[in-house]
């Protein structure tokens, strides 16, 4: 899906010359889909050889899908050989909170957290007692590799390049981008999604699943519900051209 004519005429957000960005939406444990898109990116890099390529991942790497652990392995390994920006999603924040507070396990299960436990080799019971919850989280703390924990703890909340602002959920309308609160960057929905105002830069985000990339004059949503649909979206940006596949 290319950039709409309306967007091309009215805004024309641009990246600096020579920069190409590959942005990937919410992965949610679908390591298989992530690996497929990394292969696509590698083929494009080999063919076109951009001067500078930045790979931006929009958060929500864990929960809901079957292999959160493998997703983190892929992202950590990717960062060793490519310029990458891995943003924080609300699910990463929730995982870190659960590791500190086992009583939130029951709440975490509603966010698909039990599948993250399973990906680390931990099998939860259906209705764990408070004591069992503490044991499960203690087991998770022991099972998570130190590099995974370090990765999760240092994720930034946003990334800016040229006229583009990359973030997990969105921004609070009317607030300058450099004054946004993490709570909004990671969790906001309707107030942002329903706004038609300009945000200072063109916002690339995920968080709220859509059937196909949702291109608006002020933003684009590339969360296509990969864990449920099998469709993980890759957005390529160069100059003022956007292409989502």
From TrEMBL:
Residues 20-211 form the Calcineurin-like phosphoesterase domain. Pfam families: Metallophos (PF00149). GO terms for molecular function: bis(5'-nucleosyl)-tetraphosphatase (symmetrical) activity; phosphatase activity. GO terms for cellular component: cytoplasm. InterPro entries: Ap4A_hydrolase, Calcineurin-like_PHP, Metallo-depent_PP-like. GO terms for biological process: RNA decapping. It comes from the Bacteria. This is Metallophosphoesterase. The lineage of its organism: Bacteria, Pseudomonadati, Pseudomonadota, Alphaproteobacteria, Hyphomicrobiales.
């Amino acid at each position: 899906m290319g950039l709409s004519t309306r967007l091309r005429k009215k805004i024309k957000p641009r990246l600096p010359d020579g920069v190409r960005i590959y942005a990937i939406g919410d992965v949610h444990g679908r390591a298989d889909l992530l690996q497929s898109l990394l292969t696509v990116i590698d083929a494009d890099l080999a063919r076109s050889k951009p001067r500078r390529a930045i790979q931006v991942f929009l958060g929500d790497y864990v929960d809901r899908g079957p292999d959160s652990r493998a997703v983190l392995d892929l992202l950590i390994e990717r960062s060793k050989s490519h310029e990458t920006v891995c943003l924080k999603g609300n699910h990463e924040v929730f995982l870190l909170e659960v590791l500190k507070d086992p009583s939130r396990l029951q709440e975490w299960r509603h966010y698909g957290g039990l599948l993250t436990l399973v990906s680390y080799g931990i099998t939860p019971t259906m209705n764990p007692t408070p004591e069992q919850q503490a044991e499960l989280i203690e087991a998770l703390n022991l099972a998570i590799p130190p590099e995974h924990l370090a990765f999760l703890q240092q994720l930034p909340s946003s990334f800016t390049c040229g006229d583009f602002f990359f973030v997990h959920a969105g921004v609070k309308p009317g607030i300058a981008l450099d004054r946004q609160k993490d709570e909004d960057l990671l969790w906001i929905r309707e107030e942002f999604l329903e706004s038609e105002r300009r945000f200072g830069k063109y916002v690339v985000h995920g968080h709220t699943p859509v059937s196909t990339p949702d291109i608006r004059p002020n933003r684009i949503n590339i969360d296509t519900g990969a864990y449920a649909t099998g469709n993980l979206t890759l957005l390529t940006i160069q100059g003022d051209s956007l292409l989502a596949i």
